[in-house]
Write a structure and sequence with these properties.
By secondary structure, this protein is mainly beta. The protein has helices at residues 25-31, 70-75, and strands at residues 2-3, 6-7, 20-23, 38-44, 49-58, 65-67, 83-87. The longest helix is centred in the first third of the chain and has 7 residues, at 25-31. The mean pLDDT is 95.
Length: 88
């Protein structure tokens, strides 16, 4: 993996991102959160699930967007969700 802070080479293992939600200032005000806080995501549908402790990443130009691991999305049938709700 090569990035602005340097390079890391793994002989074994994986790198997995933390589930998180991007949002701008207006969304942060609506949810009453700041950068680094945590929110939960309720997924309604045929496999209802609550994903806890999504990291809030606040940026001035960000749009509201949740980033999950593919396996998490598949496990809760996210592609067939009938509703989503962010909450504290």
């Amino acid at each position: 993996l090569l990035g602005p802070a340097g390079m890391i080479r793994l002989e074994r293992g994986v790198i997995r991102h933390e589930r998180h939600v991007h949002m701008g200032p207006a969304d942060a005000a609506y949810y009453g959160v700041k950068d680094g806080d945590r929110l939960n995501l309720r997924v309604d549908g045929d496999c209802p699930t609550v994903l806890e402790s999504l990291l809030v990443r606040l940026a001035p130009a960000a749009k509201l967007e949740v980033h999950l691991d593919t396996d998490e999305g598949n496990a809760c049938h996210l592609n067939r969700a009938t509703g989503l709700e962010l909450f504290q």
